[in-house]
Amino acid sequence: MSWNNRLEIALRESKMSQTELAKRLGVTPSSINKMLKGKQKTIPKAELLAEILGVDALWLEKGVGYRGKSNRHDCDRIEDEKMSCPVLKSIDSFSPDGMSFEEDDIIDVLSFPKEFLKNPNYDVNFDKVLCFKVSDSSLAPNIAEGAYAFFDGSNKTIISGKIYAVSVRGVNRLAVVIRETDEKLTLRTFNQDVYPTASYPVSDVRIMGRVIVSMNVAL
Fold first, then answer.
1. CA 152 – CA 156 distance, rounded (Å)
2. Do 3-69 and 82-215 fold alike per CATH?
3. Could you tell me if 86 and 129 are in contact, meaning their C-beta atoms sit under 8 angstroms apart?
4. What residues contact residue 80 under an 8 Å CB cut-off, 6+ apart?
């Protein structure tokens, strides 16, 4: 998801018009329209824009963390709201079911507030969250090479258009999964020149888990 898509979500949820947002931000309505259409590569007045819309600036700009504003220092002080998660060196470190791996493949352990992974659309099973370092650019710029990707290994229900960790004929990868029929799945990427879209029989694809969030910076 690009930043202009996140801006569209935030604006819709704020129930604010483009004209009102433009007035409060100090820009023209046409500037807001250009932002929403993705015609600007960077977000002007990102901090102020996030403040007006009531969302986290880091989420709006980079897709990192959580959507709503929160006091991160308060989260850090509440021990039962924190979690630790091992980081594996790549998605290839996981078994096809997405739930087992070798200890030697762990390159780091991250500790952070659960708030980072909370998703407003479903309940995350924190006990089944796994993380790995992304080693390709198939979903760039949404999920950059070198980013940390977190997926919920208990969430294997396919919702077309969402990103999943999958195992295809023994090869583990990330992909946007689209259910074409009961018997066919299409796996799409954002880098079509290198990783073209392809369709497979359902029996050839194992869903390892749904990607919750990716982070391009260390926690």
1. 8
2. no
3. no
4. none
